[in-house]
Design a protein that fits this description.
Rossmann fold; 2 domains; nine-stranded mixed sheet; GMP Synthetase, Chain A, domain 3; 14 helices
Length: about 500
């Protein structure tokens, strides 16, 4: 199966039903199929053919999703890029990924990218008579024998170890192996409405788009400012009676802090999925208490493997309970291995190694294509508990040496989260110091936070500096802006 084929089934029964609902606009399943065909024709008219690549730099809309489907139908690999990134970043990525055409809703984008030669293609295009005729031919023609599910489908960017972005190249099979598993795990169906909060360059959006469309559900595109103004999010949930929400814990904490679920709000939610970062037990329990009818899932996995572990909560955790990252998901084979690649004994800590249908094809870099290692070493460490579930033990790049002592940053951050008033935490090395930023109350007594950390950490692992802020800075995908945090640490001495 190929990505554009996810709407073929729902089209038979739900052609006139809403598929994508944006701000002031919506697209039915039938209209979306025609718009995708129109995008395919446009891409072919400008000379792109199967195997080519195109970037998409545009705000979330039904037309963007139509562009994804149209590119997939044409055999063209699409790369959604962060709309909030700089023109320097865009130019670097386009050059490294070998992309010469950009679909965009940003006027004069090509003029901003004078360091690379790109052809700008207007995003919005409606179906015309030619589209209807072409679509009828496509529907009646047998599938092309030259296309397979292992063909390139899309590219997501991730930070490289050198600071230069890398492209994670994924196939149709990579995407749909996860989508089919996740749709089944969450019992997704045509009666559901998903709220798409994640930007399209973030891997969480893959479930929103293709999970929703493949099951004939409705996809509501959250307003761009929704993660900053929680009122917009809860308004969208209430207005559209959203049933499934997949987002990062930060967004859920923002909703809790704004008391968004008071007076029965959000009761339409039956499934809440979080991923991308840990969720502290206290706010997680608060969320589950506010929405007791909703089933909560923790999905885990890097962009390179999509979701490889998952946990479905049977009940709310207590304040000190450790939360598992789950058991193997998406038909993945998961092992914990040592530095030599040998599987560790049950109960020992090892690096998470993943094989299966969701593991990427490889990286696109400035030096060309680098095939993925199989099995894929994630750089994440875990420990299998007596219950059979896996528990996160940090990343390879989270183990640092400070003043001669080896410290696991994940353990420090976990200790910080146990202090009252701390809603989010991050630790990193700045110079010779171990620095921590905690989000919550800016007037928090950081000395008391340090004393609480000392109860569960060795003396050398207690941060030398703890800075309290109202909230930690985030990137557009919801992840921590570590570069900004390090700059803030330098500013504060």
């Amino acid at each position: 199966m190929l990505l554009h084929q996810v709407i073929d089934g729902p089209l038979a029964d739900r052609g006139s039903e809403p598929a994508i609902i944006g701000e002031g606009v919506f697209s039915s399943y039938a209209d979306l199929a025609l718009r995708a065909c129109a995008q395919m024709i446009r891409l072919q008219d400008i000379g792109l053919t199967a195997g080519d690549r195109i970037a998409v730099i545009a705000q979330k809309s039904p037309d963007v999703i139509a562009a994804f489907l149209g590119a997939a139908r044409a055999g063209i690999t699409y790369a959604p890029l962060d709309t909030q990134a700089s023109s320097f970043y865009w130019a670097m990525v386009l050059k490294d990924f070998g992309i010469s055409h950009v679909l965009s809703d940003i006027p004069g984008l090509a003029d901003q990218l004078d360091s690379v030669c790109v052809h700008e293609v207007a995003l919005e295009t409606g179906p015309d008579a030619r589209t209807v005729e072409q679509y009828a031919l496509i529907q009646s023609a047998p599938p092309s024998a030259s296309r397979t599910s292992d063909d390139d489908a899309y590219i997501l960017t991730t930070s490289g170890s050198t600071g230069r972005p890398k492209g994670v190249l994924l196939s149709h099979r990579n995407a749909l192996a996860f989508v089919d598993w996740a749709a089944q795990e969450t019992a997704l169906g045509p009666e559901d409405t998903l709220l798409s909060v994640a930007p399209f360059h973030f891997d969480l959006s893959v479930f929103d788009i293709y999970g929703g469309l493949s099951r004939g559900a409705r996809i509501v595109l959250a307003p761009g400012a929704a993660t900053t103004f929680p009122g917009l999010l809860i308004e969208a949930i209430e207005r559209h009676r959203v049933t499934v929400l997949y987002t990062v814990p930060t967004v859920l904490r923002i909703l809790l802090e704004a008391d968004a679920f008071a007076d029965g709000a959000g009761k339409s939610l039956r499934a809440i999925i979080y991923a991308g970062e840990p969720f502290a037990p206290r706010p997680l329990a608060q969320l589950m208490g506010a929405l007791p009818e909703a089933t909560v899932f923790n999905f885990f996995g890097p962009t390179e493997t999509n979701v490889c572990l998952a946990h479905r909560f049977a009940g709310a955790p207590n304040a000190t309970q450790e939360i598992p990252i789950g058991r193997p998901a998406s038909d993945a084979t998961v092992k914990l291995v040592d530095d030599a690649g040998e599987e560790v004994a049950r109960g020992d800590i090892g690096q998470i190694q993943v094989d299966g249908p969701t593991v990427m094809k490889g990286y696109l870099t400035a030096d060309g294509f680098v095939p993925a290692k199989r099995p894929y070493p994630t750089g994440d460490f875990a420990q299998q508990g007596a219950d059979g579930a896996y528990y996160f033990r940090g990343r390879r790049d989270q183990q640092v040496k400070v003043r001669g002592l080896r410290i696991e940053l994940g353990s420090v951050e976990n200790a910080l989260l146990h202090a009252d008033g701390v809603k989010e935490a991050v630790a990193f090395v700045a110079g010779n110091d171990l620095v921590a930023f905690v989000g919550g109350d800016p007037a928090l007594d950081t000395r008391m936070v340090g004393k609480i950390c000392a109860k569960s950490l060795s003396s050398g692992a207690v941060p030398h500096r703890i800075v309290a802020v109202s909230k930690l800075p985030r990137l557009s995908n919801g992840k921590l802006d570590l570069a900004r945090l390090k700059a803030m640490a330098a500013e504060r001495g």
